[in-house]
Design goal:
It catalyses: alpha-D-glucosaminyl-[heparan sulfate](n) + 3'-phosphoadenylyl sulfate = 3-sulfo-alpha-D-glucosaminyl-[heparan sulfate](n) + adenosine 3',5'-bisphosphate + H(+). Belongs to the sulfotransferase 1 family. GO terms for molecular function: [heparan sulfate]-glucosamine 3-sulfotransferase activity. This is Sulfotransferase. It is a single chain. The protein is α/β, with parallel strands linked by helices and 309 residues long. The protein has 13 helices and twelve strands. The strands form four sheets. It has a five-stranded parallel sheet. It has a three-stranded antiparallel sheet with strand order 10-11-12, with no helix packed on it. Strand 10 and strand 11 form a beta hairpin. The longest helix is centred in the last third of the chain and has 22 residues. The protein is globular and about 60 Å long.
Length: 309
């Protein structure tokens, strides 16, 4: 709890750019980190900074799971004209949340000023059958961000997250190869593989949105050299260029870039950047081969190619 509140405090002082009454500080921090009471799923009562209001997101990071969505959100939060929702809302992909209505959704957003864009990210939206139409119904002109990485790397990262979650919960685990290969063949029904079929999911989004409403961030590039990818996002969102190379530094211990802004330094949670298992080369080649055709279809859809296997 203390860690979350400290993290929220850093987010609040950075993103909101407005003082908070001391007596309301705890409730404000709880709201920013998304801690709900047992009686209500809405944000706890908090003082509204003068001149601000909660806005429906003008931009949504729709995915993909294990593509780098958290890193993208944290890095965009550097920008003074961006405020971000602290938690994954799952409004458009979970029926039990969607039925609560748009006012419930708005109540989960941070306060923002008129010159700020509100962004929320829920990676599950990209692979959700319902999310594209539901988001279009809310705002047909909304701008969407989609961060993708090599599909095979994404599958392995997906497995790694589930593996560590099961270990921490004292549940049995399986080797990657034992899940991906069934009866000597690739297990294409494995959810992690299904999530990496970018062409299949993109087709659903392009039924509701034009391609110029969807900006694709190269997740492989973002982790190696963040600034160029973030500058592309700034241009896509019609924002002034405010994110600079000095906002990032490479953490040798963690093996990825961390953030420096407002005189503070912060890295992604320790659950990010966990080491992946060494995968049998034959299995890797099977995955590369399976995704190759899907990747080619995706490149054609978005008029852009990526350096994927």
């Amino acid at each position: 709890m203390a860690f979350l509140l400290v993290s929220a405090y850093l987010l609040l002082t950075h993103a909101q750019r407005a003082p908070v009454e001391n007596g309301a500080l705890l409730e404000t921090l709880k709201s920013q980190v998304g801690l709900f009471s047992n009686k209500s799923e809405h944000y706890s009562a908090q003082v509204r900074p003068p001149g601000t209001s909660r806005q429906i997101p003008q931009t949504i990071i729709i995915g993909v799971r294990k593509g780098g969505t958290r890193a993208l959100l944290e890095m965009l939060d550097i920008h003074p004209n961006i405020v971000v929702a602290a938690t994954e809302v799952h409004f458009f992909d979970w029926d039990e949340n969607y039925v609560k209505g748009i006012d419930w959704y708005r109540s989960l957003m941070p306060f923002s000023y008129g010159n700020q864009i509100t962004i929320e990210k829920t990676p599950g939206y990209f692979t959700s059958p319902q999310a594209p139409e539901r988001i279009h119904d809310m705002n047909s002109s909304i701008k969407l961000l989609l961060i993708l990485r090599d599909p095979t790397e994404r599958v392995i990262s997906d497995y790694t997250q589930v593996y560590y979650n099961r270990v921490e919960s004292h549940k049995p685990v399986q080797l990657f190869e034992d899940i991906v290969i069934k009866n000597g063949a690739l297990n294409t029904k494995y959810k992690a593989i299904q999530r990496s079929l970018y062409d299949v999911h993109m087709e659903k989004w392009l039924k509701h949105f034009s391609l110029d409403q969807i900006h694709i961030v190269d997740g492989n590039t973002l982790i190696k050299d963040p600034l160029p990818e973030l500058q592309k996002v700034e241009r896509f969102l019609n924002l002034p260029s405010r994110i600079m190379s000095s906002n990032f530094y490479f953490n040798q211990t963690k093996g990825f870039y961390c953030i420096r802004s407002d005189g503070r330094e912060r890295c992604l949670h320790e659950s990010k950047g966990r080491p992946h298992p060494l995968v049998n080369t034959t299995v890797l080649e099977q995955l590369y081969s399976y995704f190759r055709e899907h990747n080619a279809k995706f490149y054609q859809m978005v008029n852009h190619s990526f350096d994927w296997h």
